[in-house]
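Comment thread on ticket #2218

A.B. wrote:
> Attaching the input chain for the structure job we discussed in standup.
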Amino acid sequence: MDNSREALLKPKKTFTLKLSLAELIHLRDLFSISLPVDLKTTVSQSLAIGQGRQIVETKLWNKIVNLCKEGSVPLEEESPDFIITVTAPPELGVFEVASDYDQSSEPAPDSEDDADDE
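C.D. wrote:
> Ran it. Output below, let me know if you need it in another format.
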C-alpha cells in the first residue's frame, strides 16, 4: 500500500466536545447562515470552498445534524433561517492612492515664478 493511501486510511485523532442544548442550537444556526444573492451557499460552505475544506465542512455539518437529531433540535424547515444582508448604508472614506506623479517637479509656493506673477 502506498503512503497516500495509508494516510487516508489511518485513523484521525478526534476530540470530545460536550455541548449544551443552547450551544448546539447556536452551532446549528451559525452553520446555516446563508449568503446573498441566491442564498444557496452558507458562510460555512463559502469558507470551506475558499480554504479547500469542503469535505471537512460536510462531515462536520453531518455531525451537527446527527447531534441535533439526538437532542431533538429542529432542523431544515422547522429551524429558523438566517442570512447576511446590508442593514445600513456602508461607511465610506476618501484615501490617497500612491501614484507616479512627482510633486517635486512643481515649483515651490515661495519660488521666483510666484514672484513674477505679482
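A.B. wrote:
> Thanks. Noting for the ticket: Residues 19-83 form one domain.
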